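Pasting two entries for a bug report.
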Amino acid sequence: MKVQLQTLGWLLGQHPVHGVQGLGPMHLAGLALMMLRLPGVRLPVYGVFAALGMIAAMWLSQKTAVRVGLEAEGLWDAGVFVVMAGFVLSRLTLIALDPRAFLRMPLVMLALPSYTWVDASLTALAGVIYMRWKRIPLLAALDAWAPCAAALGAILSLGRFFTGADRGMPTRLPWGRVMPGSAGLMHQHPVDLYATLACLLLLIGLMKMLERHGRTGRVAAAALLAFGGVSFLLDMVTQPESGPGAWLDPVQWLAVGMMLSGGVLLTFLKEAA
């Protein structure tokens, strides 16, 4: 939120910048998207990308469900349930953290863009309970959803790039993104573009793994290892969130957890073979 406010402040002239030298076409396109408006309507750019990402992921799940031997309609219903559960649980978490603020400004609280690791954990638990109830094999569903998560990640990362949500470390590389700083314009690693490219490569690789019809759960384990590794590496070129004394950033702790989960699942599958 702070980064977005700083960027908007620059756009509104609160951070004077002399000239626009070094602004590439992608950066100018991002500025145009951030200022995009419809008559009488403020268009939330990241929300548009999120909606497109969910549509793409749900559409792809109909293809991957067939490849793992699941009923496409059942996996679609499970996906819709997970999305709705994630939204409802994230709102309930916000309300629980500050019920007085919700009573004063209910619409503002419900509209806040917030999704924490607690929300993700509760959503995953709700999804597991739903699939147990509907008798949908969990590992097969995770295999089918792995490429969908990569597609969603690619589109969300592109949305974050256009909104300037993530700030990369300073760089002298020629493809560094020009962003406003305390000393004027500075080049930073385009972390979100790195993430978009990585997710697209993962999407291709995971789809190829599904074509091989390997042991159930293998694709999900590979996805956890890959997503965790990519997230950990990308966070190394992202401006840190934690203080100087912290061992790892929150994103890196989450990445380590993903890699450990993938390793445990892979070990379980080998021992069960």
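Entry 2 (this is the one that rendered wrong in the viewer):
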Amino acid sequence: MLKIKAPAKINLFLEIGKRENSLHPLFSLVDIVSFYDYIYLKPSKKTEIKFISKWEIPKDNTVSKLIFILKKIFNFEVEVIVKKNIPPGTGLGGGSSDAGNLLLVLNETFNFGLRMDEMVNIAKEIGSDVPLFLYRKRCIIYNYGEKVIPCDDFKLYYLILIPNFSISTKDVYDKLDKIGEYGDLTDCDLKVRILIEEIKKGNIYMVEKKIFNRLENICFEIEKKVREVKDEVEKITNRKFFVSGSGGVLFSVFKEKEEVESIEKRISLDNWKKLVVESINFCM
């Protein structure tokens, strides 16, 4: 069987606008990192999708949605096995990555002949985070997630803290709509360009100052433990920690691997998993 790596993502910047036609416009800087689901596939006489996961995966998931869409266009049968390592409902984009990376490989394996813009159109039907995984490197995404601009690759290291609970993305966005605290998307391009320049310089102090997530406080309201752990680890490490996506994963950013490994050893948390990861660029 063919083996595919489906990496996680971290949002270094995430601004959200007011809901329009059931969708929220957004502007985000997303890094792709070295934490993976693994997907195995092979042509088959009958299409089957299986998950190896300690978390419950709904029947209507990103992989099944992708296969359903593709089978309306192409005649093919495939066996897919997804080994889940990226916990659902944590802001790491595991489900979106599974669909995006599987689409890339299916297009090549079965010679669908889809252009990138055609794959993006398919991906955006599944979810706003799916198109970014077609580019497999750090990128800016905007509008409803279908507009993607790949960025220059300057390696960063991260310490991520993964809770043993999930947070519903729908619940987070519903609460955002209830509160109505949307962001102004007009100046996001400038803010993200400044953040990218600080990443290039390796100025982690300024990178921390420019990291932003519109959904962070809402995540804290829904699950107070995330805020408590953030405060605790910031006090222990004297480093800033941030929420990725709709949460509840926390991350801190570093320039050097030795530094992140040193900080990791100082943290001991019940029911939270510690993981050191780094930026990756599959296009290299």
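Dev reply: Rendering is fixed now. As a check, the viewer should reflect this: The radius of gyration is 18 Å.
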